[in-house]
C-alpha cells in the first residue's frame, strides 16, 4: 500500500519535473536509510527539530516545488510559506493529528491563495478500483502485464 500511495501522490498528482525540489514529510523514521541506502540528497527527523521553519529553510534555502504531505499541523504550517508560487502539494495523511482530541488548526492557508499553490488530497483506495464487470478482463490483463502494481479491485455494482 505504501508503494502505490507514493506512486499515485508523486507521479499521478504532483507530476514532478527534472530538477524540482521535493519535500516529503514522514517519508521514514530512519533518516540514515533515506540518505545512505536510498540516495536521498538530504533528510531530517522533524521530531528532533525545535524550529521547523528554520529546518526547512536549512534544507530548502530558496523554495520547495513539490510537497508530499503526511504530517499536517505545524509541519504544514511551516511548509506553506516555503513553497514556490504555483508549487504543488499532495496530501494523503496527517499523522500528527491522529491522536489529538482537537486537531491543530492550519494557520498559513493564505499562502495557498497568494502563491497559487495547487493542493490536492487523495485516498489511495480510489486508485485500486475499476468499475463494471465489462472492465474486468482488461483489469486482469493490466494487472498481470505490469500496468497495475499491487491489488486490483473490480467494482461489479454499486447496489
From TrEMBL:
Coiled coil: none annotated. SUPFAM superfamilies: NAD(P)-binding Rossmann-fold domains. Pfam families: ADH_zinc_N (PF00107). One of its GO terms (molecular function) is 2-alkenal reductase [NAD(P)H] activity. Residues 32-126 form the Alcohol dehydrogenase-like C-terminal domain. This is Alcohol dehydrogenase-like C-terminal domain-containing protein. It comes from Salvia splendens.
Amino acid at each position: 500500500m505504501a508503494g502505490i500511495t507514493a506512486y499515485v501522490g508523486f507521479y499521478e498528482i504532483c507530476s514532478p519535473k527534472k530538477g524540482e525540489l521535493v519535500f516529503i514529510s514522514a517519508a521514514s523514521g530512519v533518516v540514515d536509510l533515506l540518505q545512505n541506502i536510498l540516495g536521498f540528497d538530504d533528510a531530517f527527523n522533524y521530531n528532533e527539530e525545535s524550529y521547523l521553519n528554520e529546518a526547512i529553510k536549512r534544507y530548502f534555502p530558496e523554495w520547495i516545488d513539490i510537497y508530499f504531505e503526511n504530517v499536517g499541523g505545524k509541519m504544514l504550517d511551516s511548509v506553506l510559506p516555503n513553497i514556490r508560487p504555483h508549487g504543488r502539494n499532495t496530501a494523503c495523511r496527517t499523522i500528527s493529528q491522529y491522536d489529538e482530541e482537537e486537531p491543530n488548526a492550519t494557520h498559513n492557508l493564505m499562502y495557498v491563495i497568494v502563491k497559487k499553490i495547487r493542493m490536492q488530497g487523495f485516498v489511495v483506495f480510489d486508485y485500486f478500483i475499476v468499475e463494471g464487470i465489462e472492465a474486468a478482463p482488461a483489469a486482469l490483463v493490466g494487472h498481470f502485464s505490469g500496468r497495475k502494481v499491487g491489488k486490483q479491485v473490480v467494482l461489479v455494482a454499486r447496489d
